[in-house]
Design brief:
This protein has about 475 residues and is mainly α. It has 20 helices and no strands. Helix 3 packs across helix 12. The protein starts with a helix and ends in a 6-residue tail after the last helix.
Length: about 475
């Protein structure tokens, strides 16, 4: 019996309560991205653009959170995670893409953790650079496989780890916000309001920050992933909304108060994690050390939790016959070992690729966000279909969430859409394997159309990289 099955059959008292679910949402959302927000925003926009970007992102993600809340109540039979909505609404092939994309985004997101750790240590060990040197990648790879060995021994207490990690993340962030408010300089804040000359038009400033907001909001669907374990079904939606609102307030605060400490041109030149550099500018070296230590502790714990979640996505998808049977296998210690191997291997590949990118952290961050957009868009579109037979309020929310996720695809830009296709298209091999194991033909006529689009996008992406039309 797997861990999921054990928990599913557990008595009611062993189910997850609203506070626990909310903590899981907050813990999964507050990750490496928040420590990078000051530089990421200062690279693109001033205070005005940041306020608009957070208003757009906050509204759009709130609509998406409401979508997950509605679907949890309206379709309680769909317990296999976010990708189940894509499968129920648009067929098995797009459901497979959603499952693979969600899994791949978690793997790529894990790479940002190692890049940030190496970049943080790189402040005192120059050979590690910004986390993208050969030595940094070698040390990160060692860390990857050490965690693989640890998890393969049966480390499955993700909920308990998540609670500890959440505290480790939130405390330094809250301290940062309080200190930044205390040291805030009104004249610096005013100078940063319109943005620097390099920022461009207000629309381009807002668009440039959209992928960063997607990355930091990843995890808003965390309660949905564990919906089968909820004590009460309605708690899934409540935890999603409570967790989102809490984290949104923290993220927006970190970004905005930073503009009151340093000129945005200087923030944009800080090494990652930029939050450490901003606090160092305000209070001295101890501020940088404080944030850096908090980051390393929280990121290592977050890496463990997200690796478990990524492996679980493949494992559950295989149990639903959406992935090949070999991914159903688990060890005597209840670890889905083949899924864990694939998760670690993909993270390893992306880690090597970061050596060839212009900015390792931003590349991994943007790719993580882009890969997530298909599962989110399909979930929102499925909510539209459900709402057409329901209430007008639900329909309005679902339409807004769909429009927002479609805008995110546009904001991601041509480059990351093509790179996403390069990741998605080869994954079809797993889909074909699963179909053949079930004695079914690989594709229906409609699925062949989706296949043709994904392969064409992948070929174009590879060609664009080879000819230098786009770069990593």
């Amino acid at each position: 019996m797997t861990q999921v099955e054990k928990e599913t059959r557990a008595p009611e008292a062993a189910k997850l309560s609203l506070p626990t679910l909310t903590t899981m949402v907050v813990g999964s959302m507050v990750g490496a991205g928040v420590f990078s927000l000051p530089r990421r925003f200062a690279d693109e926009t001033g205070v005005a653009g940041a306020l608009i970007a957070w208003a757009v992102a906050g509204t759009g993600m709130l609509m998406l959170a409401f979508v997950f809340q509605t679907l949890a109540v309206r379709r309680p039979d769909l317990d296999a995670g976010v990708y189940a909505y894509a499968k129920a609404g648009f067929g098995e092939y797009l459901g497979f893409f959603a499952a693979f994309g969600y899994w791949a985004s978690a793997c790529v997101g894990n790479v940002t953790y190692w890049v940030l750790i190496m970049s943080t240590i790189g402040a005192i060990a120059p050979a590690l650079g910004d986390g993208d040197t050969v030595l940094a990648v070698v040390l990160s790879s060692v860390g990857l496989w050490l965690f693989f060995a640890l998890i393969s021994r049966g480390v499955k207490e993700a909920a308990a780890i998540n609670r500890i990690v959440t505290v480790a993340k939130v405390v330094p962030i809250l301290v940062f916000v309080v200190l930044a408010l205390f040291y805030l300089k009104p004249h610096v804040f005013a100078e940063n309001f319109g943005g620097a000359d390099y920022a461009g038009s207000l629309f381009s400033q807002v668009r440039g920050t959209m992928l960063a907001t997607v990355f930091v909001f990843l995890g808003v669907e965390g309660a949905s992933v564990y919906s089968r374990h909820a004590r009460r079904r309605e708690d899934v939606g409540r935890a999603t909304i409570l967790g989102f609102l809490s984290v949104f307030a923290v993220f927006a605060s970190v970004t905005i108060v930073s503009y009151g400490l340093m000129p945005m041109e200087e923030i944009a030149k800080l090494r990652q994690p930029s939050m450490a550099g901003v606090l160092e500018h305000a209070v001295g070296t101890w501020g940088k050390v404080f944030v850096s230590v908090g980051l390393i502790v929280s990121v290592l714990g977050a890496y463990l939790a997200w690796t478990l979640m990524a492996a679980e996505v493949l494992f559950v998808a295989a149990k639903d016959d959406d992935m090949p049977r070999f991914l159903k296998r688990a060890t005597a210690a209840d670890v889905p070992l083949p899924a864990l191997v694939m998760t670690t291997l993909l993270s390893q590949v992306v880690l090597v690729v970061t050596m060839f990118s212009d900015d390792a952290f931003d590349f991994a961050l943007d790719l993580t966000s882009a890969l997530t957009l298909i599962p989110f868009f399909l979930a929102a579109a499925f909510a539209v279909r459900i709402a057409l037979r329901g209430r007008r309020g639900e329909l309005a929310v679902a339409v807004l969430a769909t429009v927002y996720t479609a805008f995110l695809v546009y904001a991601a830009g041509f480059k990351f859409v093509l790179v996403s296709f390069i990741v998605y298209a080869p994954a079809t091999v797993l889909f074909v394997m699963a179909r053949r194991e079930q004695g079914r033909r690989p594709f229906s006529p409609r699925e062949l159309v989706v296949l043709a689009v994904s392969v064409a996008g992948a070929v174009l992406g590879i060609l664009a990289l080879a000819l230098g039309w786009i770069s990593l």
